[in-house]
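hey so u asked for the seq, here:
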Amino acid sequence: MRRALILAIALTACDRIEPRPATDSTARASAAPSARPEVRAAMTAIVTAAQATTATCVASELLWQPDPQDNYYPKYIHPCIPERCAPKIADLAALAGTVKAARALLDGDPRLDQPSLRGLVALGDATAAFAAAAMGGKPRDGRREAERLSGLSMHHAALVGAFREVYPDAAAPVDPPSLTASLAVDDPGGDPCKGWRIPRFCDVSKVHVSSPLTWRTKPPCIEVTTDPRTPSRG
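ran it, C-alpha cells below
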C-alpha cells in the first residue's frame, strides 16, 4: 500500500513539470522568418545590387528656385543639391533580378509572407523602377539633363534603412559612399551664388548638409542649410 501511494505521488509530481522554456535567441530564430539564411541572403542581394546602382552617384551643383514674390531684383530661394548618377544597365538589370528572386521566395512559402520582408522587396522594386523611368524619359521637375537620376540615392537610403531595421547587425551605409565623399568638401554643391542671374544680389555665403542626408522630393535633391551674407546692390 505504501509503495502504491509513493508511486502515485511521484506520477502526480511529474504531471506538474513544465517543459523547459526556449532561450530568447532560440525563440527569435524560430519565430522570425527573416532569420532564415535563404531569406537574409535574398534581402542582402537586393541591397548589394542597389549599392552597385548608386556607386557612381555624386553631388551636382546647387539648385535654386526663383522667388516669385520678389519684383524688385532677381532673388532665389529654397536651395538644394541634386545628384548625378550613371548606373550601368547591367547593374539595373541585376537589381531587378534580385527583386524578382526575392519576391518568388516569399510567394513560395506562406510562412515568409511578412510585412517587413514584403516591404524590403517593394523598396527594392521602387528603386529599380525609379531608375528605369528616369533613364527612359525626359528630365522632370526642373531637373537638368545630367541630374535626371537625382533621387536614386534617396530610394537607396529608404531601402537600406528598412534593411537595417530588419537586420540590426548589418553594416550597409545608408547613403552611398561616393555621394557622401562628394559632399564632404568646403563648398558642397559649389559656389552658392552660381545659380543667381546677378551674383551680387546673392544673400547666402555658405551651405551645409546634414548626416544622414535629408531629401526633398520635388525636385528630388538634398536639403541644405545656409549661412547668410549681406548682398551688394550697388
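The helical segments are 2-15, 24-31, 37-53, 89-107, 115-136, 152-166, 177-183. The CA atoms of residues 157 and 175 lie 6 Å apart.
lmk if thats what u needed
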